[in-house]
């Protein structure tokens, strides 16, 4: 038995896939246009509040924000595109014609499932190559309040670390491990929650279990005096990984980069469960485009003239939205450590795959 026997005719398969893709991306375009317009109403004031910003910066924000919106709402668009396609095929009795020719429900859905797989592959590549970079750049831009971005050389910037009661701010961190170099160090020395003094040094490097700072100065808050200290040892017991791995934004890192960060955290003995869940979700998230035609399949079967087509479409939408609720809930539980990372990322997909199959078998097969 050839693979072609699992599909309708070549012409019908292309026709169905084309209907599905056109409706999916048309819905996505409409959602992006509406949601970006609403988002811009709230952010344009903040962008233009920085002196010198104008239309170019607004368009730059749109260019960075649109990929995030596409990533978030592509699965919703696939769901609605599936339901619209299958409803129209049912309304025009095309599904009945295919069933009468001896095709099973799974064979009727096969062109949409293959098209959904293509969308999943495109979505994964788009997320890895475009969305992660846009997210990382936009987060950095927001930190400087939409001002000029510093040159990105792959270093970490604006890192905060806690050392007992003290807070340490580092403007720029370069290198890894024992070779880490710190630039623009400010230590807020506190006692009992109250600020006692502020120590600043331009450059610091690893020294034993602490750090050596050069050209240090300390401002005594109570006395109002600035004292030059020269070279001084600071932050005893603070590890290099606390600066290099202080904040990992899973949404702003591609899969290989996030995997490397997780491995580094494990070597440093730091918790990684939440990041591991996000790592697995980089695969399970795009694969939801394969699941949507199956969840929306309830709109394809049954007689359209029975008057229940709208009800079936609503049931398909409800199943799809329940999946998104379950997916977000599982990720949240994974972040809290209540679910193992693999379960947090894959359980909703596998659960609704079984639910979709059960509904399809129950109502049609």
Secondary structure elements and pairings:
Blueprint: H1 10-49, H2 55-91, H3 94-100, H4 105-143, E1 156-163, E2 166-174, E3 181-191, E4 194-207, E5 210-220, E6 225-234, H5 241-244, H6 255-267, H7 273-284, H8 288-295, H9 309-336, H10 341-363
Antiparallel strand pairs: 1-2, 2-3, 3-4, 4-5, 5-6
How would you describe this protein?
The protein is built from ten helices and six strands. It has 365 residues and is α+β, with helices and mostly antiparallel strands. Strand 1 (156-163) and strand 2 (166-174) form a beta hairpin. The two termini are 21 Å apart. The mean pLDDT is 85.
The run of helices and strands is: HHHHEEEEEEHHHHHH
Strand elements, count? 6
- Overall, the morphology is elongated
Major pleated sheet? 6 strands, antiparallel
Alpha-carbon Rg, integer: 27 Å
Oligomer category: single chain
Per DSSP, what share of the residues sits in E-state strands of 2 or more residues? 15-25%
Compute the average pLDDT.
85
């Amino acid at each position: 038995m050839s693979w072609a026997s699992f599909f309708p005719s070549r012409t019908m398969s292309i026709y169905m896939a084309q209907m599905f893709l056109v409706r999916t991306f048309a819905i996505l375009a409409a959602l992006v246009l509406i949601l970006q317009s609403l988002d811009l109403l709230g952010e344009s004031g903040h962008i233009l509040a920085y002196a010198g910003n104008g239309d170019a910066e607004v368009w730059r924000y749109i260019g960075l924000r649109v990929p995030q919106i596409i990533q978030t709402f592509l699965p919703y668009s696939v769901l609605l595109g599936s339901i619209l396609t299958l409803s129209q095929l049912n309304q025009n009795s095309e599904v009945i014609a295919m069933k009468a020719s001896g095709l099973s429900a799974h064979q009727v859905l096969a062109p949409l499932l293959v098209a959904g797989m293509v969308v999943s592959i495109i979505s994964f590549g788009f997320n890895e190559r475009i969305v992660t970079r846009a997210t990382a750049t936009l987060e950095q831009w927001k930190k400087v309040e939409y001002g000029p971005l510093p040159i990105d050389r792959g270093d970490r910037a604006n890192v905060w670390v806690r050392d007992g009661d003290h807070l340490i701010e580092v403007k720029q961190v370069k290198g890894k491990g024992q070779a880490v170099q710190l630039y623009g160090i400010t230590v807020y020395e506190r006692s009992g929650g109250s600020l006692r003094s502020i120590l600043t040094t331009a450059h610091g490097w690893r020294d034993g279990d602490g750090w050596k700072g050069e050209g240090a100065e300390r401002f005594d808050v109570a006395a109002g005096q600035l004292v030059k200290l020269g070279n001084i040892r600071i932050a005893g017991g603070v590890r290099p990984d606390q600066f290099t791995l202080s904040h990992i934004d899973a949404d702003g890192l591609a899969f290989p980069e996030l995997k490397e960060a997780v491995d580094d955290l494990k070597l440093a003995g730091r918790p990684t469960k939440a990041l591991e869940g996000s790592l697995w979700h980089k695969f399970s998230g795009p694969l939801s485009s394969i699941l949507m035609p199956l969840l929306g399949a309830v709109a394809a079967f049954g007689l359209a003239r029975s008057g229940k087509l709208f009800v079936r479409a609503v049931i398909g939408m409800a199943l799809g939205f329940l999946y998104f609720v379950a997916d977000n809930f599982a990720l949240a539980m994974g972040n809290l450590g209540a679910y193992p990372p693999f379960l947090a990322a894959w359980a909703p997909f596998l659960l609704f795959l079984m639910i979709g199959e059960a509904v399809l078998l129950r109502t049609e097969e």
